[in-house]
Amino acid sequence: MTFHASFPKTIAHLRATFTPDEYLALMGRIKQSYWMLTEREEVETYWRRLPTYLFARCPLCGAEYTSVADTHSILEWVISRAEYNSVFSVDFQRVGCVHFTAVQSFIHLNGYFPTEVDYFDGACGDIPIVIPELLLDEFHASAVIHSLPICRVEGNEFALRYSLYTVTYYSDAPGEARPRSYDLRFPEGVKDDGDSGFPALFDSSGRSYREPLVGDLRYWVERGKLHWLDLDDPTLPLKSGPASGFPYAGIQGFGGSYIYRKRPKPRWRWLDRHWHPDGEIRGYPLNELLARPSW
């Protein structure tokens, strides 16, 4: 499996607030009690015990953006191009200041198949990009990138498997910056993401194929538009340069939206000779095969 060079530095900032057995037991109770409509107590326990992480510092005023996030597994992660106001839950975060404009999340599988779930939608892709329309000079706009590992339970441990990348946008007029971004991207009218019915503020990693600069993160650092939290410092101070020290250059991956899915075993093997119990990963909207386990 392949991890980006920044991955080892993110491990020091990971927090586990359950033991593996506690976590699996709680998630099992939540799933079971959901069908009985009695899951309230278990859900409250889940949210109360999740770790809180620092995801960004405002480049304009220094305020911290913090949020709970379940880095024990990807079981509860939902990634959407239309969701712009939270990393994990809008109810369990503190944006910190009035300059917070939006935040986008990307989950990189690092070559693993997320077999702990039956389905996972990587709508934003796996390689972080920036949205230039949210970085306009007229709004003194800029962004902050950060990363954390996401685990999965294997045996009696939280095994390091996936990478979460977040890009948090700031401006001095968020209420104007977001509509302007829509107008610039969709001059003929705001479109929705074709799934949720809400306007899609973000693009997926796939935009970098059409416009390579959105994926050239070091370019945006050099322009003073992209900052990062210093992974080498336990306090995670904001860094703005030099570009030679930028830790997230050269991330490789699928480079677009992807879906992991397990499919039912065919009744007769000859109907689908490529079926595998660990599922497969396909891109969309073209449904091209990206990865499939080998026997």
Layout of secondary structure:
Layout: H1 7-10, H2 20-34, H3 40-49, E1 52-57, E2 64-68, E3 93-94, E4 100-108, E5 119-122, E6 142-154, E7 157-170, H4 174-185, H5 207-210, H6 217-222, E8 226-229, E9 238-239, E10 258-261, E11 280-283, E12 289-291
Parallel strand pairs: 6-8
Antiparallel strand pairs: 1-2, 2-3, 4-7, 5-10, 6-7, 8-9, 10-11, 11-12
Helix pairs in contact: 2-3
Average pLDDT, rounded to a whole number, is 91
Number of strands: 12
| Spatial order of strands in the largest sheet | 4-7-6-8-9
Number of domains: 1
What is the ordering of alpha helices and beta strands?
Answer: HHHEEEEEEEHHHEEEEE
Note the total helix count: 6
Query: Approximately how much helix is present in the residues?
Result: 10-25%
* Main sheet characteristics: 5 strands, mixed
Radius of gyration: 20 Å
Structural class: alpha+beta
Task: Describe this entry's structure for a reader.
With 295 residues, the protein is of the alpha+beta class. The protein has one domain (7-16, 51-291). 17% of the residues lie in helices and 24% in strands. It is built from 6 helices and 12 strands. It has helices at 7-10, 20-34, 40-49, 174-185, 207-210, 217-222; strands spanning 52-57, 64-68, 93-94, 100-108, 119-122, 142-154, 157-170, 226-229, 238-239, 258-261, 280-283, 289-291. A 5-stranded mixed beta sheet has the order 4-7-6-8-9. It has a 4-stranded antiparallel beta sheet with strand order 5-10-11-12, with no helix packed on it. Strand 6 and strand 7 (157-170) form a beta hairpin. Helix 2 (20-34) packs antiparallel against helix 3 (40-49). The two termini are 17 Å apart.
